[in-house]
């Protein structure tokens, strides 16, 4: 299943190039999808992971769904405009060096997502977990 990470990254880059997105947005999307799919691979209870890219007039949303229901950092605000909780982890600049040492490897990837995405969030249901990020 780890082969799914480069495959998802490649497909996101191809789609965004075809849409004419700027190179910096394509690179940000590639990094975000790498982190989200990696987390899904690590925390899923099955081999089924879905990655979807949605384009609108407001930007691009990356969605990754898996059967796992592992805990994601608590949202900072009740909901975004779509009604989905928005995840926020502390910015790296706000943490002391020793605090960074105490973050799990998973948390470091979400710091990257937090830095690159305009917003991101998560929803858990009986069928699994959806994690999304907006660019």
Keywords:
single chain, 135 residues, alpha+beta, 4-stranded antiparallel beta sheet, 6 strands
Structural write-up:
It is a single chain. This protein has 135 residues and is an alpha+beta fold. 40% of the residues lie in helices and 26% in strands. The chain has 4 helices and 6 strands, in the order ααββββααββ. The chain has helices at residues 4-18, 23-43, 97-102, 105-116, and strands spanning 49-56, 59-66, 75-77, 86-87, 119-125, 128-134. The strands form 2 sheets. A 4-stranded antiparallel β-sheet has the order 1-2-6-5, with helices on one face. It has a two-stranded antiparallel ribbon with strand order 3-4. Strand 5 (119-125) and strand 6 (128-134) form a beta hairpin.
Q: What can be said about this structure in brief?
A:
The protein has 135 residues and is α+β, with helices and mostly antiparallel strands. The chain has helices at residues 4-18, 23-43, 97-102, 105-116; strands spanning 49-56, 59-66, 75-77, 86-87, 119-125, 128-134.
